[in-house]
Amino acid sequence: MTFDLVASPALSRFTVDRSEPLRGDAERLAQGWPKARVIEVDAGGRTLVADGGSRLVHREATGYGDVPHEHAVFLGEQDGVAYWAVPRADDTTEALAPGRVWDRPAAGAEPTWLDLRSCGALLDDMGAGLFTTAVALFHWHRTARFCARCGAGSDAVKSGWARICGACGHEEYPRTDSAVICLVHDGADRVLLARGEGWPAGRYSVLAGFVEAGESLEACVAREILEEVGVAVRDVRYLGSQPWPFPRSLMIGFEAVADPDEPLRPAVGEIAQAKWVTRADVRQAFERPGSVPDLLLAPGASIAYRMIQSWAFA
């Protein structure tokens, strides 16, 4: 059997017009600044959210000056309003450790600073798209301050969507690393899940890996699964994609079929455990989290969550 995603992955949602031609139009952007809205993002990749993490807190752009902030990035327009993001002023927050999720507040709590992993699945379509884009752009700026061609310092241009070298004039744009993520099933009622080294006890997800130079997406799926769990796959089929700005990936989702009688050989140092799980157990784990021993599923902000959910309830 095959299946399709039941809905868009949480971080794939985006409603504003990215308005690429507008990024270099400083005059028009300045004219729209007085009614623009701004979100702040701290060094830990968090922004201020309200209503239990379901609503971004926008502020009036004029609170940041009469023209676009020096380090502001333009996210897009909707209904005649421009949306920007700025780094949090005087921020000393430590960067979020890989896989860590900040505590999520209860509904009705005071606005608080949350990471994209914590609230990405709770935000509305516009909020999810704005926050995802802001996190991706700010990470790129932090790691691309020097020219890749000559090593001299570079400056942000085009409303934060490019950097130009002050020495050689080389222009760079935000980078994205392609990664495949694949739900492997047996063609019937079992799915192959794995737990990465260093993950919390009982946390399982589908398999993923980065695309290598000169490699097709389908070839990467077959190679990664063979390397990570020692299983050959067939019938590789595309499902969907999602940006994953931790730090700059695009997760490209697939399904594939494998023989559950093949012995599993988890890659040493990478995969702590791998196992076949029944559809009934996966459904129960969704409906009553914690009720299936040794089976906690991927968080809602990830495309893995949407893939497993879509297979389980197909």
UniProtKB/TrEMBL annotation:
Cofactor(s) for this UniProt protein: Zn(2+); Mg(2+)
All copies of domain Nudix hydrolase, residue ranges: 174-300
Transcription keyword on record: no
The keyword Repeat is assigned to this record: no
Database matches in SUPFAM superfamilies: Nudix (SSF55811)
InterPro entries named among the record's database cross-references: NAD-cap_RNA_hydrolase_NudC, NADH_PPase-like_N, NudC-like_C, NUDIX_hydrolase-like_dom_sf, NUDIX_hydrolase_CS, NUDIX_hydrolase_dom, Znr_NADH_PPase
Keywords carried by this UniProt record: Hydrolase, Magnesium, Metal-binding, NAD
Catalytic activity: a 5'-end NAD(+)-phospho-ribonucleoside in mRNA + H2O = a 5'-end phospho-adenosine-phospho-ribonucleoside in mRNA + beta-nicotinamide D-ribonucleotide + 2 H(+)
Entry's Gene Ontology molecular function annotations: metal ion binding; NADH pyrophosphatase activity
GO cellular component labels: cytosol
EC number from the UniProt entry: 3.6.1.22
Gene Ontology biological process terms from the UniProt entry: NAD+ catabolic process; NADP+ catabolic process
Record-stated family: Belongs to the Nudix hydrolase family. NudC subfamily.
Name this polypeptide is given: NAD(+) diphosphatase
